[in-house]
Amino acid sequence: MAYVVTQVFSPKDKWKKVTKQIKEQILQRMIVNLSSLAGDNRVQLIAAGQIDGKIPRVVDFEFYVVWSVELSEMSKHITQHLRESEWNEYFEVVNIGGSALSIPQFADLVLADLDAE
């Protein structure tokens, strides 16, 4: 069963103050670090983009990335690579992860939580 990691992030003031050249260097380090994981087929990028602020109950972040990984341990490698690329110094990041479930499995999980009340 796959493990899914979702990250939402927005630039910090520090990012807004650096030159375009430094931004390109930081992005290049992040791409190289994460591409090494993808190249080994340890992670798969599902989607990345800008968060649509028009959807109901949207989070207060600007961008998102969704990864699929074979083991939950791999999510630690994703966050490690982002730290090594200095990403966390320039962006406020929230990481969310969990096992990918089918709709019936998800329904059972939600119902089990309701039974606990």
From TrEMBL:
InterPro entries: DUF6616. Pfam families: DUF6616. This is Stress-response A/B barrel domain-containing protein.
